Amino acid sequence: MLLEVLIALALLSLCFMPLLAPQFALLTAQKKLVGDLENDRIAAQMFLDIKERMYNNTIALDDIPVKERNDLMKEGEGLREGFEIVEALPDGTAKTFAGHYEIFRRQKGSTALPMPYHLIIVKLYFYSNKAMKPYVYNIMAERINGEADDENTAL
Questions:
Q1: pLDDT in tens, 25-55
Q2: pTM score over 0.70
Q3: Which helix (H) or strand (E) holds 1?
Q4: Where in the sequence is the domain holding 66, given as residue range(s)?
Q5: Where are the alpha helices (DSSP H) in 56-153?
Q6: In a domain, 12, yes or no
């Protein structure tokens, strides 16, 4: 009799696994989506911080390296700086977002007669992202009387 009960429990547990497998897959996909949305939110927050620092001239336009249109933008060739953001969660724990960003600029015109307009490219990388896919933002800036001034943002 005990053997029959054990066989019945084994069969029952085998039947529950296919019923629960889609729920577990859905839970993992949901956790990944929430992580991606958090990275998107932090990337937008970091971009606004970088743009504000450029507007206040904390990051000078002359410090940002110029890349020609045909040059490939490789990781590590631009103005690079790391960041770490710690956010408190409602349950009392803290979550850390760490990564780095790189800034390049493209200038229209020759080096003899530089144009006042620059396309500034900001790439944000998160260390938690295994693929290291960057978040790319573009800023259109105009140099007025030797100073940088943000004009438009094309996202």
A1: 999 999 999 888 888 998 999 999 988 988 8
A2: no
A3: none
A4: 22-154
A5: none
A6: no
